[in-house]
Amino acid sequence: MTSPVQFSVAPGVLADGGAALKALAADPSLRAAFLSSPALGEIFAVPASRFIVADDRPTLWQKLEVLSAKGYRTGVEHVGEEAFDPAEIEAVVQEYLALVEEAPANAADPVQLGFDLSNVGLLRSRELAVENTARILTAAAAKDITVVISMERSGFVDDILAAFDELAPAHTNVGLTLQAHLDRTKSDVDRVADHGRKVRLVKGVYREDPSIALPRGPELTRRYADLAASLLDRDVPLACGTHDAATLDLLDESGLTSHLVEVEMLHGVQPALLRSRREAGVPCRLSTVYGQNWWLHFLHRLAEHPPTVLTALADMADPSRIRFGAEY
Ligand SMILES: Cc1cc2nc3c(=O)[nH]c(=O)nc-3n(C[C@H](O)[C@H](O)[C@H](O)COP(=O)(O)OP(=O)(O)OC[C@H]3O[C@@H](n4cnc5c(N)ncnc54)[C@H](O)[C@@H]3O)c2cc1C
């Protein structure tokens, strides 16, 4: 992959650009247009391929082999969005069961899976989400595959924590993502840590009200490191999911990095930074996404770093800039 376009932009412009892109990502009519218009998908397919590694599972497995050969642990999420229709929910579950079925047996570093509970039934009932996740966890356990549940918008957090409480006692292979930007997370730590399951700490991708969440900035970075320390104090197997050099540096300076299970990044974001950590001997996981409904995932990647819009335009003009895995 050719390097992203590099330049500096005033922070206010970045914040405004990010907010606008997140609003676009959340707009249902645009999401519907993406699904119904092949042209929109075709136009953005090239720049999106920095982040969405494959359309289908056969291509996905080939791509994961490339990343494993370079020394990365891998993770997989099937791109999708909140599902309410029972057939759609079951299709998501079947997709994950197929991933488990096809995953190599006896792998030294089994692939890790992840998904939103709102993809597997949470919008209908927590019981359905728990039941479906348990089906996937049970199949995954036979291949030592861990499933790390994603964390969603603040309105879902209570239900997701309750689902995790139900799943964690019987399933050693379940993990949970926590968002450092939410003020409540500090008080959720004990409850989650008590289960002793894997936690992935992220800052949080959703736009939240300032009354309940911190915006990006040094205060959030410090809170992130404090939460990491407090999870490690409680012996939680902790993965840090961040693309931010300053956050990784603070973890280093605080003596926390060597206690992490791994540093994890999304495929396509900050490849040189993850490679530098791998070369320094830190276990690194590359979390990939695949599938066809990638509009939301793509816009979130642009929104969290708006200069990526220019990288996307350059990629559209010259698709040969993208060479899978080259920068890792
Ligand atoms: C493995 C993984 C799983 C995740 N799961 C969830 C989840 O379940 N729920 C959820 O809400 N969020 C999730 N996220 C997203 C996460 O919450 C953040 O939105 C995302 O990681 C951006 O925050 P950051 O700490 O990486 O960097 P930020 O603090 O947002 O950015 C700081 C700096 O990092 C660099 N940077 C950040 N992004 C980019 C980029 N795209 N390109 C180039 N440079 C960049 C820039 O230098 C930027 O100034 C996940 C992230 C990862 C890595």
Search tags:
single chain; 328 residues; alpha/beta; TIM Barrel; 8-stranded parallel β-barrel; 13 helices; binds flavin-adenine dinucleotide
Brief characterization of the structure:
The chain is an alpha/beta fold and 328 residues long. 47% of the residues lie in helices and 13% in strands.
Task: Describe this entry's structure for a reader.
This protein is α/β, with parallel strands linked by helices. It has a single domain, classed as TIM Barrel. It is built from 13 helices and nine strands. The protein has an eight-stranded parallel barrel with strand order 2-3-4-5-6-7-8-9, surrounded by six helices. Helix 3 (38-48) packs across helix 13, helix 6 crosses helix 7 and helix 9 packs across helix 10. The chain is globular, with a radius of gyration of 19 Å. The mean pLDDT is 93.
